[in-house]
Design brief:
By secondary structure, the chain is mainly beta. The protein has 2 helices and 18 strands.
Length: 245
């Protein structure tokens, strides 16, 4: 049986650790950027692909020094979910911590077959019926493009990140990453149908100290939209009428 002194010691240690974590969190600074679409290529882009959007671009910072202290991800009570309803995935973009499980509930009155064949996480959930749920654990960092083998119009993206330092751009292209601790970081950029105009800008190294940092403009050029140009899980074209249920 543990003594009251032991319990008090454990409680004090927990409080001290909590205060230390809060202090680390409070010492961080804000890192901002602005996503800008290169409109000078608009006439060319419209012939081949849509212009990238300045919204929903994810920018994240990866620590260059192994073992660098990072605060925990924001607490989240509800599980991560990618809901299938009305032949759509909701949300369209989901950013999660590496090692997290995501639920894929089927809320449509027909079967779905969720799969991903890309390097983020490869899986195939098979056919499952309305009202049921299946889950996948995203155990490695990366970008996963999610599809349904029955309905070609369905597509979503899951980004599994090993850092809590990320931000998603607003409609105006503004990105803000909060409470970044001092250190050296590599800048990473993901856009659904865009690529950085300067490849080096997507992997630039930034040094964070005690002052806020503005990364400047991140210019995007049109790129192939993986979600709009994909095959079924067998690497074949979807057959006409295949999604009639």
């Amino acid at each position: 049986m543990r003594s009251p002194q032991h319990s008090m010691t454990v409680l004090c240690c927990s409080l001290l650790l909590g205060l230390a974590a809060m202090q680390l969190h409070a010492q961080g600074v804000e890192v901002t950027a602005k996503i800008v679409v290169n409109n000078t290529l608009a006439p060319v882009a419209k012939k081949h692909t849509d212009l990238p959007s300045a919204a929903n671009v994810v920018v994240w910072l990866s620590a260059l020094k192994p073992g660098s202290p990072v605060p925990p991800w924001p607490a989240r009570q509800a599980p991560y979910r990618l809901v299938q309803k009305n032949k759509m995935f909701t949300p369209h973009l989901l950013v999660i911590p590496t090692g997290t499980s995501v639920q894929f509930p089927n809320e449509d009155p027909f079967f779905h077959n969720v799969f991903s064949l890309f390097n983020g996480k490869r899986f195939d959930l098979g056919l499952y019926e309305s009202g049921t749920t299946r889950s996948v654990r995203f155990d490695r960092e990366g970008i996963s493009y999610i599809f349904c083998n029955i309905h070609p119009e369905m597509g979503a993206v899951i980004l599994a990140l090993s850092t809590p330092y990320f931000g998603t751009s607003s409609e105006t292209g503004v990105v803000a990453i909060h409470n970044v601790l001092p250190g050296s970081y590599r800048v990473n950029v993901w856009s659904e149908n865009g690529q950085t105009m300067d490849p080096a800008a997507a992997e630039q190294v930034v040094q964070i100290s005690s002052e806020p940092v503005h990364l400047g403009n991140i210019m995007l050029l049109p790129a192939t939209n993986v979600l709009a140009n994909h095959k079924n899980k067998f690497g074949e074209d979807y057959q006409p009428g295949h999604d009639s249920y």
